[in-house]
Design brief:
The complex is a heterodimer. By secondary structure, chain A is mostly helical. Helix content of chain A is 69%, strand content 1%. Chain A has 2 domains: 90 residues; 205 residues, no CATH class. The longest helix of chain A has 30 residues. The C terminus of chain A is likely disordered. The mean pLDDT of chain B is 90. Classes of the chains: A mainly alpha, B mainly alpha.
Amino acid sequence: MAAEVQVFDAVLVVLLLWLGWRALASADLFKAVVQFIVFGLLLSLAWVRLGAPDVALAEAAIGAGLAGALLLDTLARLGRSGAADEARPLGLTPARTGIALAALGLAALLVASALALPERWPGLAEPALQQLRASGVSNPVTATLLNYRAWDTLLEVGVLMLAVLGVWILEAEPALPRPAPDPMLGLLLRVLLPLTVIVAGYLLWVGAHAPGGAFQGAALLAAGGVLWHLARPLSLGPSPVVRAVVVLGFAVFLAVGVATAVLGGGLLTFPPEHAGAIILVIEAAAMLSIALIMVALFVGRERAPSDAGIPDSAADASAVPGAPNPGAAP
Amino acid sequence: MSLALLYGLAGIALVAMGLYAALAARHVLRRLLGLNVLGSGVFMMLVALASRTTGIATRPDPVPHAMVLTGIVVAVSATALGLALLRRMHAHDGSPRLPEDRDAGSP
């Protein structure tokens, strides 16, 4: 990573700030969301420039891809009247002047503290790299996530589970009118879905010693799942199978934590000789859960004619006359 | 100006923008966009600060990277829940604004 500021960085920062502002201030919410998606994609370039390829992978798949799909889906459901906003949604009014001043004041405080920080700082890089041999993996980000600070990651998987429970608690929504079946989308799905699974498995495995890991793999799987839902609507309501997979990651993680607390050195303290295998097991379970949770967050609870489980083949859906979407013809 | 400072200041600008939009906007979707930009600004500050290890360690500090990774996943799930609540409110009240932001004659 080059530490020198290049023209590229200046252009990227200006573009990010402009797109970030347009994503907030565009009167048309559709434009705002599209600008937010582009903002997310450019943000992953910034992560690469700052030497954080793990974050860049997650940002490109989650921040730009999945968040964008969620926002566009909600816009479509709000309809034309629900998506309408003021002509100058963030224009300064007397009531907003106080908010603007507060935001500027916070920014000034943050700038002052950022300028007061030393230009070079060892941070926790040294201890994180020194303990790497005992962590079971050689990618320090994976070691931090799944070993040094496994407690954070356990709670994160818990938060994800709570989010999907929150969505399921809400009343089921009527299914959106589906567009006409698109043979290209079906074809794309047939090619992309197996590739998605392979690349997600690769990311999970390679995360032990290179950028990648459970979150990036899960994000990719979730993107595949969303594409699947768009081509052939899934029904991912709280059926027993779906519930089991949603809980799987948290349950395995917690079981490992309890086992290490009872048998070993303490909650989530992995014995160095088994740490690699333990991390892989946790990551595999977490990847499946996180991917399904993200697809379930996107699908939500639709009032579908057939609300029983996951339709595992599009043939079922297309065989039902009057189904909301006959699915893409294979 | 170092790379860390440039991106750190950009992150601060994003935090200010996002905070203003989250508080000033009336449409809930725009508020959620504001929260997301605010979050992106915080992530950018963290990753920028992590890159200050140049010349000391062989790579940037991995701990803030792991925190940002966690943050991205939590942010998207919180956004999804927020959007689901927004759709529920819109289906119930017919308005995408919070009750105190609704005035007569506007959506």
